[in-house]
Design a protein that fits this description.
The complex is a heterodimer. By secondary structure, chain A is mainly α. Chain A folds into two domains: 3-295, ABC transporter involved in vitamin B12 uptake, BtuC, CATH 1.10.3470; 301-374, Winged helix-like DNA-binding domain superfamily/Winged helix DNA-binding domain (Arc Repressor Mutant, subunit A, Orthogonal Bundle). Chain A is built from 19 helices and five strands. Chain B has helices spanning 47-55, 96-101, 116-128, 144-157, 174-189, 201-207, 224-227, 230-237, 242-255; strands at residues 7-18, 21-32, 36-40, 60-67, 79-82, 162-166, 193-197, 210-215, 217-223. Chain B is an alpha/beta fold. The chains are: A mainly alpha, B alpha/beta.
Chain lengths: 450, 261
């Protein structure tokens, strides 16, 4: 595609000059949004595959509706699909409750049986010229361009309902997913309308209906096979960015909408490529980026954290080694050759150099050619580490009666994680803290003077 | 019953079945208000099941439970429940404050907006269990004992009169255990009823006023010190009566094809 054509088409698309394209854009954004938001629920309930099973189970409902009424009216499509999804949900739940079949098998069984019936009916229908015209087979992979104005009206209405539901019942949803036993104990599933009780677990049923409706709404756009991805992927991606359910809902809906918009855009640029699959590809890309680059929860940040921890451990070990060497000398904080530290800690010179200059920068060390000396703050830190190390050794020998030669390795690790709180509870349970199990003194904490 | 104080929870001829297999047989006990009561017994004795049937979760195959003379479903807001650790998703993206705020859920509030009173109750509860400094923390970042204390705070903030806790002392250190016990004692002193499923027989008589010793049926119920007699413990822990187990299996097999395992 030439650059000028590309630019022109892009401008056309994003300024909504092409009405047909704008409708598709609106539909994709809405669907991405509700699928993303609702997906958070199934994702956090660890039931992500439910979406897939329900989507496949919608097919026989649609095809049966078409066979019975020979109509592609969204109303019939909806009712047929909802009934068949609810039947599937009922089968899954009761299979789990009444037989020894586990969750995953129940999902797989229901999915394949319903889908098989749907595909079977589809092959019959396709011989019917009306069906080809109505584009029933589009339900398999979705075709945004084939959506009628009525379809989009329905989609807008459903989106409004779904968002209202999530806003009104946000707290209830949160309690139910986090702690369903508590939810039940408080009787939060009980609902009533005009004083008529709707049953003990009505809210849970309502939530099922919400998921079913969202999936069915996505069928025409993303198709039976791919709509589940729009429910799962944005939610999974948003978890990397969120520490609260509310934020997860927002972020997931946003990711879903972005996927929808970009899917529609790409498909507009090259009409041979359908919207639905591109939505899924974009969502998966967002997921990938999130999984790798998200702060705190992402893979990269975790690796960096691990490296930082390792570097810190190495630096602390150097401080402690300097202290230990100095302990045997009469002078306080003598100058010590680097090579001696490298030998004791079994460190490569290059690594040691880096850690040394880092420690000097932080003011823990004074460097002097190939020698180094602890600064007052460095000494205080080294004393603290040594104190933790020896206290821990002592604790292990006294409290769990470990032999003295078993405790050093453990203390090498633990010295880096002990806090002053843990220190005080160790002190509480120790009787004699003169020296460690190897007979070396346990140094007193040093106060640093400024 | 230990003395003449008011009955808070009346359990009468309670029977419960899972998949047509009875797991509790004809349990009777009257739990008094103002006391801390332990439910003890071996694994699989039906301790959690009893707690859940008091809450009204489970269909009963016989008997009834009354809370202050009424069915549990009518007084749900007066019962604070702390589920077993395993039933909760600890990876859930939620802060300590939010967890405790759950207790203030009310059907009458529009959009569940927290009132000043709600915030005060939540703060009080968190301070009582010494977790106020952690209110902004993610629940997944806490230690086991801290998580357990947050759950206790949630129960406290509900301002209930009945507290049902499933193994509140599981997996926590002795210091947390003591401080939680202190909270229970204060609750009981204020007239509330505290019932805990408990697994450590050694501490029953020091921690609890009354105890129910259970193994699919009631072994003994009464003051904690007398319930745990040598004879009763032997009876509870030397396995279930074979007849009960066998009849249970047959009841189940009649409804289902008998399967391996």
């Amino acid at each position: 595609m030439e650059a000028s054509v590309f630019l022109q088409e892009s401008i056309e698309f994003w300024t909504f000059r092409d009405p047909a394209a704008s409708w598709v854009l609106l539909a994709s954004v809405l669907l991405g949004g509700i699928a993303g938001a609702v997906g958070c629920i199934t994702f956090l309930q660890k039931r992500s595959l439910i979406g897939d099973a329900l989507a496949h189970s919608a097919l026989p409902g649609v095809t049966t509706g078409f066979i019975l009424f020979s109509s592609r009216d969204p109303l019939f499509v909806y009712i047929g699909a909802i009934l068949s999804c609810l039947l599937a949900a009922f089968c899954i739940v009761s299979m789990k409750a009444k037989t020894k079949i586990k969750d995953d098998s129940a999902l797989a069984i229901v999915l394949s049986v319903f889908f098989a019936i749907g595909v079977f009916q589809l092959t019959i229908i396709q011989k019917n010229p009306l069906a080809a015209q109505a584009g029933i087979e589009n339900l398999l992979f979705g075709k945004a361009a084939a959506m009628t104005k009525d379809d989009i009206k329905v989609l807008a209405g459903v989106s409004f309902l779904v968002f209202s539901f999530l806003v009104i019942f946000y707290q209830k949803i949160k309690i139910l997913i986090f702690d369903s036993a508590y939810f039940q104990a408080r009787g939060l599933g009980r609902m009533s309308i005009f004083g008529i009780s709707l049953g003990e677990n009505f809210f849970q049923k309502l939530l099922w209906l919400l998921i079913v409706v969202t999936i069915i709404t996505g069928l025409q756009l993303a198709g039976v096979v791919l709509v589940a991805a729009m429910v799962l992927t944005p939610a999974a991606a948003s978890r990397f960015w969120s520490n609260s359910l509310l934020r997860m809902f927002y972020v997931s809906a946003l990711f879903g909408s972005i996927s929808g918009a970009l899917g529609a855009y790409i498909s507009y640029l090259s009409p041979a490529m359908p919207t639905g699959p591109w939505m899924v590809v974009v969502a998966s890309f967002i997921f990938f980026i999130s999984a790798v680059f998200a702060p705190r929860h992402g893979y990269l940040s975790r690796i960096l954290g691990r490296i930082r921890l390792k570097t810190q451990t190495r630096e602390e070990n150097i401080l402690r080694t300097l202290f230990k060497i100095g302990e045997e000398e009469p002078e306080e904080c003598p100058s010590i050759a680097w090579s001696q530290v490298a030998r004791i800690r079994d460190l490569q010179m290059s690594r040691l150099k880096k850690s040394m200059s880092e420690l000097a920068k932080q003011g823990f060390l004074f460097l002097d050619g190939e020698e180094c000396r602890l600064s007052p703050t460095g000494l205080a830190r080294a004393v603290q580490l040594t104190r933790f190390h020896r206290l821990w050794e002592l604790y292990l020998t006294q409290e769990i009666k470990a032999p003295a030669d078993h405790v050093h390795e453990d203390a090498e690790e633990v010295e880096h994680v002990i806090t002053s709180e843990i220190e005080s509870s160790i002190l509480e349970s120790l009787k004699d803290i003169e020296s460690d199990p190897h007979g070396r003194p346990i140094p007193e904490k040093l106060e640093i003077e400024d | 019953m230990s003395d003449g104080s008011a009955v808070a929870i009346e359990v009468h001829d309670l029977g419960v079945s899972y998949h047509h297999k009875p797991v509790l047989w004809a349990v009777d006990c009257d739990i008094s208000a103002g006391e801390i009561t332990a439910i003890v017994g071996p694994n699989g004795a039906g301790k959690s099941t009893l707690l859940k049937s008091i809450l009204g979760f489970l269909p009963l195959s016989s008997g009834y439970v009354k809370i202050h003379g009424r069915p549990a479903s009518e007084v749900a807001n007066k019962i604070a429940y702390v589920p077993q650790r395993e039933e909760v998703d600890w990876d859930f993206p939620i802060t300590v404050h939010e967890v405790v705020m759950m207790s203030r859920y009310s059907k009458l509030k529009f959009f569940q907006r927290a009132s000043k009173e709600d915030r005060r109750q939540v703060e009080d509860a968190l301070r009582t269990v010494e977790m106020w400094d952690y209110s902004k923390r993610q629940i997944s970042d806490l230690s086991c004992g801290q998580q357990q204390r947050v759950f206790l705070a949630r129960a406290l903030a509900q301002q209930a009169s009945i507290y049902l806790l499933d193994e509140p002392f599981a997996g926590i250190d002795i210091k947390t255990e003591k401080s939680m016990l202190k909270v229970f004692e204060d609750l009981a002193a204020s007239g509330a009823t505290v019932v805990c499923v408990h697994h450590d027989l050694n501490t029953v008589s020091t921690y609890f006023d009354s105890a129910l010793l259970l193994n699919v049926r009631k072994i003994a119920f009464g003051p904690a010190s007398t319930v745990l007699s040598q004879e009763n413990i032997l009876k509870a822990y030397s396995g279930r009566p074979q007849v009960l187990t066998e009849v249970g299996e047959r009841l189940r097999a009649r409804k289902f094809q008998k399967r391996e395992g």
